[in-house]
Amino acid sequence: MNVFNPIFSKNFRYSNLLLTDSALYYRVDPKLPGGMWDRVFITSDEKTICGLLGFELDEILKATKEEFFIMMAKSPMVINKRFETVRKNNKLEFYVEFSEFLKTFKETNKEFTPVSMENFFHIRDEFMDDMSESMLWLTERHVVNSKFNGKTIKGAFPDYDMTKLSDTIPKFKDSFSSKKENELFIIKNGPSEIHKKFLEVTN
Cα(196)–Cα(148) distance, rounded to whole angstroms? Predict the structure, then answer.
């Protein structure tokens, strides 16, 4: 059984986690207007991912589909009722099969145990720092456009050729590894540091 399967993926959501086809992330969602959220990497190690749900990697890899369903149905870290009803537009056959299996499974009396965030600090030393960065970005990114724009560049450099901005501003943004890193730089720094970096990158 593949560790990166839709049953694991859906169940991780109820611990505020996101399992993609290659890694597990923590979903950072401060419930901001517009629904902006971010994700923080936890691990791509299959053994660790299985361990977070109380399973051994070997038993998952060796399991048949039916054996896997039984393990999921019995686990206190899986919410059976979330799989009992399949939406009409859900095309994943795996969901349908698990849902049908649960109709015949009698051992449903169990209390759900979510994955504890404390685990993530032990998995990645940088997890807490990344969480802080993510929260900072999500809650403060609204200030980016007012801290850095054509007007602020003109204010810092009165003789600047403003006709270059269509080229230099994108060049400045592209000097960062991502939009998030670009915006975090602006959030964290004052006008002089921002505009100094702008000149260094674009000259």
Answer: 12
| Per-residue pLDDT tens digits for 74-106 | 888 888 888 877 665 555 778 888 888 888 887
Q: How many CA atoms does the CB half-sphere of 121 hold within 13 Å?
A: 6
Domain spans of the chain?
6-120, 148-202
Question: What is the value of pTM for the model shown?
Answer: 0.86
pLDDT for the residue numbered 87:
62
Q: Which residues contact 151 (CB under 8 A, 6 or more apart)?
A: none
What's the DSSP call for residue 141?
Answer: G
Max Cα distance, the chain (Å): 77
Which helix (H) or strand (E) covers residue 61, if one does?
helix 57-62
3-state secondary structure of 42: strand
